[in-house]
Amino acid sequence: METVAQNSIVFSLDKQQFELLFKAHYSNLCAYANNFLKDLEASEEVVQEVLFKLWINRETIEITASVQSYLYKAVRNSCLNVIKHVNIREKHKIHNERIIQMEEQSDEDQMIVSELEQKIRQTIDQLPIERRKIFIMSRYDGLKYQEIANKLGISVKTVENQMGSALKFMRSELADYLPWVILFLGHFLKN
User: Fold this and answer.
1) Please, which pLDDT band fits residue 3 given cuts at 50, 70 and 90?
2) How far apart are CA 69 and CA 72, in angstroms?
3) Which CATH topology does 15-92 take?
4) Per-residue pLDDT at 4 exceeds 90
5) Which of 118, 115, 140 is nearest to 166 (CA)?
6) pLDDT for the residue numbered 186
7) First vs last Cα of the chain: how many Å apart?
8) Residue 128 — φ and ψ, nearest 5°?
9) If DSSP codes are grouped into helix, strand and coil, which group holds residue 75?
10) What single DSSP character describes residue 65?
11) What does the radius of gyration of the chain's CA atoms come to, in whole angstroms?
12) Average pLDDT for residues 85-102, to the nearest whole number?
């Protein structure tokens, strides 16, 4: 078994050698880790994990540079892994928060759309019968003014006047909902 001297290859450490190594490097390794993590507890955990792995693998581990260099490199790599893991966890958390926020917004939007659709139906029902028929043929059935005029046996000008009056009434009755009408059901207000 070789000693834990600088620039040596360690094939095995006994308990006393490990304790000396621990006492000699622990504080400095924690300070070094804290430069990366900015969290003393996390830094101590990283150093303890590195030293624990060194102890567990003491029979098989090969250190070709100095023990100190090996420890600092192992602590640095472990800190970088912790930082990467924290970043991934943070991105995942942000992603989940966005999904939850979108679902909540979607539920709220659905309620508004449902309320809006009900208000639109009520407003359409308030139109005089012929005007309502023309409005529905235009906006729901997608017929052109000429097609409506032909089906109802009226002039295109009458269809235009009736649609203008219907749209004016709709805008007036749905004024409080206008931003939502524009966003979700803008096709009702097209001329």
Assistant:
1) very low
2) 5
3) Rna Polymerase Sigma Factor; Chain: A (1.10.1740)
4) no
5) 140
6) 46
7) 92
8) -55, 150
9) helix
10) S
11) 38
12) 83
Q: Is the pLDDT of residue 56 over 70?
A: yes
Measuring CA to CA, how many Å separate 65 from each of 18, 24, 62, 78, 122? 17, 17, 9, 18, 83
Nearest in space to 12 (alpha carbons), one of 58, 50, 54: 58
Structure confidence at residue 113 (pLDDT): 72
Give the C-alpha separation, 76 to 29, whole Å.
9
H helices of 126-173, in order, are: 129-139, 145-152, 156-173
**Tens digits of per-residue pLDDT, 114-157?**
887 888 889 999 999 999 999 999 988 889 999 999 999 999 99
State the Cα angle at 164 between 159 and 170, rounded to 5°: 125
Q: Where in the chain is the domain with CATH 1.10.1740.10?
A: 15-92
How would residue 12 be classed by pLDDT, with cut points 50, 70 and 90? low
CATH 1.10.10.10-classified regions of the chain: 126-189
CATH fit for domain 126-189, picks 1.10.10.10, 3.90.180.10, 1.10.275.10, 3.40.190.170: 1.10.10.10
Is residue 9 a contact partner of residue 65, using CB atoms and an 8 Å limit?
no
Contact by Cβ (8 Å): 34, 44: no
**Can you spell out the DSSP letters for 15-35?**
HHHHHHHHHHHHHHHHHHHHH
